[in-house]
Design a protein that fits this description.
mainly alpha; 470 residues; 24 helices
Length: 470
């Protein structure tokens, strides 16, 4: 063997060893980041609960479908019972870290130090760790958005198993909440529109790859009713959509106007309750002694609710349009990280958990969320979270406005555009089909500063590349 060949082989071996060292270091940092993302839950002393947590967990125990409660996510929670749900939040945290690391790597920003700095910044300045540590599928919404971006724009830089895993994330996120399905469908329409417009642009701009993303959404469409069939013996999507829409129409006053025009009418079961009509969607859906409960609950009242929705659309189209625009805007500007800290609101979840997992009751009661709620602490964090979100949104919008100047890499601009589209579509879906709530928007807002980090990192890298070239 010549000296040249021996030197080449030694060089290749050294490269492999260096690559292996970088891999193990990155893996070690990624694992170390898991408790960092779990920090709010660890500080709380128990995974963070939400009023909906018990409704999700009950699905595999009762074998039934319930208003807006995914049976698949309920089964996921049930699997974590032996570990006091710590396994669930650890997996949610690990998923976020993997997606962050994968996105960084595909933008040539890989490295243990970059990953640690990015995760730390997001944990301090955004609601990421609060939603990753909460036992509801909120964190999966942002995971689906990031996965769609990676499949559409970074597919040539990810491995086959990563493509399959990203598709599985999207499918499971869709099956865990119907709102995620609507959001993903809206985003794939935007991507298809961009693919059409791309024909008229230069090759400088990335063209989305729609096949893998579309297949992932199709898999979610199938997984949602299929998982309900396996868990609840009912091949159907998670029910109750008309109940949430009706609650929003109650809150916006459209139902009151409708009853004013139609009542008294023996065919409208809600007419006798005109004077008792709640003023908020939450009171219509959840308040004790509300008219909905007296009318048979969401199941018993579904047909009339659907009829009134459609009939009011015919009667008051302009009022529907006005309230839809108003609620979308309201949802768009709600940015506070939301944790349920009111004991009355938590009563349904605590009661369900006490019945389903009685052995956990002392540990649940001892958690700070129940024993000593911390609204002042969360308010201080929200000062940072809201400021970060607003600054990031201004930066992302500015990047798109000045895109032609070439300051930011085209791939980073695609991430910025997709995040902004997701925020707008999410605001429309949640504002129109439910009602504006801080949580609905803030659970995905951490993607805005993350997109800004990617943009600034690739800009610095591009500048370094230009300097080397010159």
């Amino acid at each position: 063997m010549s000296d040249f060949s021996a030197t080449a082989l030694a060089h290749q071996a050294a490269l492999r060893q260096a690559t292996l060292r970088r891999f193990w270091l990155l893996l070690a940092v990624g694992i170390a980041c898991v408790p960092l993302v779990m920090l709010p839950a660890l500080w709380n002393g128990f995974p963070i609960l939400f009023p909906d947590t018990g409704g999700y967990l009950a699905r595999p125990f009762e074998g039934t479908l319930e208003l807006g409660r995914s049976a698949l996510y309920g089964a996921f929670l049930a699997a974590g019972i032996p570990f006091d749900f710590w396994l669930n939040v650890a997996l949610q945290a690990a998923l976020c870290i993997w997606l962050i690391a994968l996105t960084l790597r595909t933008h040539q920003l890989s490295g243990a130090g970059i990953l640690l700095a990015t995760v730390t910044a997001l944990c301090v300045a955004t609601g990421l760790p609060w939603y990753a540590g909460t036992l509801i599928p909120d964190i999966l919404v942002s995971a689906a958005i990031l996965s769609l971006y990676l499949l559409a724009f970074r597919g040539d830089r990810i491995r086959r198993w990563e493509t399959i895993a990203l598709g599985a994330v999207i499918a499971c996120a869709i099956a865990s909440h119907m709102g995620t399905l609507a959001l993903c469908l809206g985003l794939i329409v935007c991507l298809a529109g961009w693919a059409f417009v791309h024909r008229r642009l230069s090759d400088r701009w990335p063209k989305p790859r729609l096949l893998a993303a579309s297949l992932a959404i199709a898999a979610g469409l199938l997984l949602a009713p299929l998982s309900n069939l396996v868990i609840a013996d009912d091949f159907a999507f998670t029910p109750g959509g008309e109940s949430f829409v009706f609650g929003r129409l109650v809150q916006d006053g459209i139902v009151a106007d409708y009853l004013e025009d139609r009542c008294p009418d023996p065919d409208i079961k809600l007419c006798p309750y005109r004077s008792k009509l709640p003023t908020t969607a939450d009171d219509w859906l959840w308040a004790p002694g509300n008219p909905l409960g007296e009318l048979g609950g969401w199941r018993g009242y579904a047909d009339e609710a659907q009829f009134i929705i459609l009939d009011s659309l015919r009667r008051y189209p302009l009022e529907h349009l006005e309230t839809a625009i108003t609620t979308t805007f309201k949802q768009l500007v709600l940015m506070k990280t939301e944790v349920s800290l009111v004991k009355d609101w938590m009563a349904p979840a605590i009661g369900a958990l006490r019945e389903l997992v009685p052995g956990m009751t002392p540990r649940i009661a001892a958690a700070r969320q129940q024993a000593e709620p911390f609204p002042e602490l969360l308010a201080r964090f929200n000062t940072i979270h809201v400021a970060t979100a607003m600054a990031s949104l201004v930066l992302l919008i500015g990047m798109l406005v000045f895109a032609r100047r070439g300051w930011i890499s085209p791939e980073a601009l695609m991430l910025a555009g997709l995040v902004l589209a997701a925020l707008l579509i999410n605001a429309a879906i949640c504002g129109i089909f439910s009602n504006p709530v801080d949580r609905y928007q803030s659970r995905i807002l951490w993607l805005a500063p993350f997109a800004a980090i990617i943009a600034l990192g690739t800009r610095r890298q591009s500048g370094a590349d230009r300097n080397r070239t010159s």
